[in-house]
């Protein structure tokens, strides 16, 4: 562990010691590296992941215990407060969405018949973050992965008219894309914005293909039962909100087959074509009615920020940011009888490393030329149900379970 820590600090921190306009790399002094210890990281983790903090759910009492612990550490180190009104805290307004399944609805309308699907068994909804009750009814079109990537000469919308339609979209992105590009284009918000730009009014994501082998539908249901959060800006708008998409849902592969009945291709044929690297988009027969309902809970959950001031008069107003999120998912469904999701890996470990790196710099006699901003943040737990591409990109399956070992 000690070697890993040293490498981390060397890779991240050397940039703060680079003289302006010069190319050589000046690594931090050995004395700074020696201050980052496995013992120090372990001590922070043991407190942050203790049952006392109840999983550090965003905006909860347990999170505030963790936030005050980080604040006290920053103050003890002598970091300058970088929050509001001379404090270490930066207020964040968070909205928690609680789905109301008894009011949710997803109905397929075709040939003068209606087929009503079942919440969780067939589909999931998280609620619209700006309105507690929304609905939409429109014809359907299948748009592959829902990706438009001009630099890769790829466009799922090239041969389809999505205006006024509900787009049906597969999770993830083309396997031929480089990994970083694939992660970017798999992101749910990017897909929603792309759908809106093509005139869509609703969206249904499908969890299908290779992704289901590692993360079955039962695990997706578990993810959706965790807290759903959006931060709210000063104008009252939720983050990453795409107003043009009036309602959305997420379906499993088996249930989604009903969407393709009577159309030019089945879901299996569409999957095979896309997996072979051949984009395929086409109209689906019939329309969909969706109603999404949720209850809102307004929360306050602060970031914690402190500064190690740089030594160079010309460069000290430039900042190198070190960041980790402090919150986890709090208390949830029992696993092996334990309801507290302690989040030792996600992200007590990152917060502990942030604190130890801050302590090393604060105690060093050699100050970096640029200022260092240490930012411990809240609100990591939000997710979007459209395509769950970002669910994989963020590796939400890692470190989310309860008990001290996760």
Task: Please render the helix and strand layout as text.
Elements: H1 2-13, H2 30-34, H3 38-48, H4 61-77, E1 80-81, E2 89-90, E3 93-99, E4 105-110, E5 113-116, E6 123-124, E7 133-142, E8 148-149, E9 154-155, E10 166-170, H5 179-186, H6 188-197, E11 202-207, H7 211-214, H8 217-224, E12 228-232, E13 248-252, H9 253-256, H10 267-275, E14 282-300, E15 303-308, E16 319-325, E17 331-335, E18 338-340, H11 344-363, E19 371-377, H12 389-393
Helix pairs in contact: 3-11, 4-11
Q: What is the number of helical segments per DSSP (H or I, 4+ residues)?
A: 12
Gap from first CA to last CA: 17 Å
CATH topology heading of the largest domain: Glucose Oxidase, domain 1
Instruction: Profile the largest sheet.
Output: 10 strands, mixed
The shape, in one word, is elongated
Outline:
With 406 residues, the protein is an alpha+beta fold. The protein has two domains: 2-92 and 301-393, Zn peptidases (Aminopeptidase), CATH 3.40.630.10; 97-294, Glucose Oxidase, domain 1 (3-Layer(bba) Sandwich), CATH 3.50.30.
